[in-house]
Design brief:
Layout: E1 8-20, E2 26-33, E3 37-43, H1 45-48, E4 52-57, H2 67-73, E5 81-85, E6 89-90, E7 93-94, E8 100-101, E9 111-117, E10 120-124, H3 126-130, E11 167-170, E12 173-185, E13 190-194, E14 204-208
Antiparallel strand pairs: 1-2, 1-14, 2-13, 3-4, 3-8, 4-5, 6-7, 9-12, 9-14, 10-11, 12-13
Length: about 210
């Protein structure tokens, strides 16, 4: 994530579609849903040792919040997600507790970085996880087509760290940099960025410029 970004907002992934530019080119875009973000905390150097703002978005039943979060949010709302950004202003606007941030801060042509978690795929074998070719499907290779193969050696007589093998796949934080904003719909709170972004539909994303 960019340090001290000039624009930032929390969004959810709505899906992908295609739009046409003024020149007639077809462009694949990801549509992001940006509900109003509310400033839930402003951190200062005097009190916290650094400057930052915390944004909250999404809806959640108040009874499902912990007492600590209910006290933290006070009367601002019951938010599903909160994230912190190392900046206290958007452009010339200094943010204060309770201020709202929406998609209107962006305009077509802005270049943004979108961060989120990739789809989790659970425990996966080496063929799916790393693209291994597998064993030959010939005589003498029964039930071993998708095995990893030999990973041992005479010295140092144990499996070396870092070798590719089966394991939990996906759900890694990924940042897609240099994505151009293609369209902004302030009325519906939609933001269209060129290309693909990580995560499944409905997952949380951070958008900074």
């Amino acid at each position: 994530m960019a340090k001290n970004p000039s624009k930032f907002v929390l969004a959810t992934k709505a899906g992908m579609t295609q739009i046409y530019t003024d020149g007639g080119d077809q462009v694949a875009v990801t549509v992001l849903q940006v509900a109003p973000n509310v400033v839930t905390q402003v951190k200062t150097k005097e009190k916290d040792g650094y400057e930052a703002v915390q944004l909250g978005t999404g809806e959640k039943k108040a009874k499902r919040l912990s007492k600590g979060l209910r006290g933290h949010f006070k009367d601002l709302g019951a938010f599903r997600w909160t994230r912190e950004f190392t900046s206290t202003a958007i452009g010339d606007r200094t943010l204060a507790l309770g201020d709202k941030v929406d998609v209107s801060i962006f305009e077509p042509g802005d270049v943004v970085t979108v961060s989120g978690f990739t789809k989790g795929k659970g425990f996966a074998g080496a063929v799916k996880r790393h693209g291994f070719a597998g064993m030959p499907a010939s005589h003498g290779h029964k039930h071993v087509q998708r095995h990893v193969g030999s990973i041992g050696q005479r010295f140092p007589q144990h499996t070396l760290k870092g070798l590719r093998g089966p394991g939990r796949d996906g759900f890694e934080k990924i940042s897609m940099r240099g994505l151009a904003v293609m369209a902004v719909d302030a009325e519906q709170g939609l933001l269209a960025v060129k290309g693909a972004v990580p995560g499944a539909k409905g997952s949380l994303l951070t958008v900074v410029a």
